[in-house]
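Hi R.,

Here's the chain you asked about this morning:
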Amino acid sequence: MDFSYWGSICLAVFITLWLTDRRRFLNGYFLIAGLICFVIAVWQWLEVTQAPWMQAMMLITSLVLTGIIPIALAFFALACVLYSRRLIRYSGSQLGYVMLETIGFVIWGMLIVTLLNSLFFRSHLIWMILGILFLWIGYLMVGFLSYALSSLLDELPILYSVDFIVILGAGLLADGSVSRILQRRLDKGIAIYKQQRKRGAHPQFVVSGGQGSDEIMPESRAMGNYLIENGIAKSQIIQENASTSTYENLYNSEILMTKEKVFHRAIFVTNSFHVFRAGVIAKRLHTTMSGISASTSIHYLPFAAFREYLALFMMFKWTNAMILATLTISYLIYWLFVY
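And here is the predicted structure, written out as tokens:
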């Protein structure tokens, strides 16, 4: 099989899909598939090389990869447990934190059972069950990598003029001031606004966020105050103060923007871990909004990304269930009738 050919096809599809709509979940999968095909193609080309030093280097690489994969899994599992314990210690026991810790323990259990079965049990049934579990973990990891790559691509700057810059709300501090995570969204929006003004555009801000039960004012009011304090005219700010979720943020903001200008072009700003899922929601609402990433604190980013991927997984739960079922059935057929 000519993997370079299939890699070129996958990358061509990725570029086409991404240029037409960066909010597709398939974008990352085609990019990953293309890169994997090219890696395999290079490996095949090296295999036919007769130079002794090349053959030796490939052997060493194979041995290193064979050792690195289980070690990397073990460290990943340990990181999940330690990181979740830290979150639980500082923020209390929440479902997401417990799930992250559980995933770490499950991976450690699988690695231990794999070692024991290799050394002592040598049970075909255990190998079959482990194969299914590793297949599921592989599928989840590829999906997470697709989500991560799609989120990174939203770091690219916008090269067109917009009519509106939507800032998605986040929590406020006890005194009603914006939280650190929300401040980063607002600062990113201000930077984009200044870039747009240099292009000759005059976009308006739409600050979107209602009032939580533990907040003394709507998030939109606090965001508006922050923008005014940082040099944005009050006339350039539209407040949307009824939203309690990302879906409502985007839906209500779209209604307000359409009232202001029927045919408009808008972008929304949120943090890097959240931008892709928000884009998928915007796509489902049949809007043209694309997302722009604001930075996220490095200590919070791992869990935030994990939580966002779980939310994305559940958004496409039936598709994921069908794919996992197909992979599992195919694996069982291979194991029972071919292997």
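One quick note: The beta strands are 164-168, 204-208, 237-240, 266-271, 290-294.

Cheers,
M.
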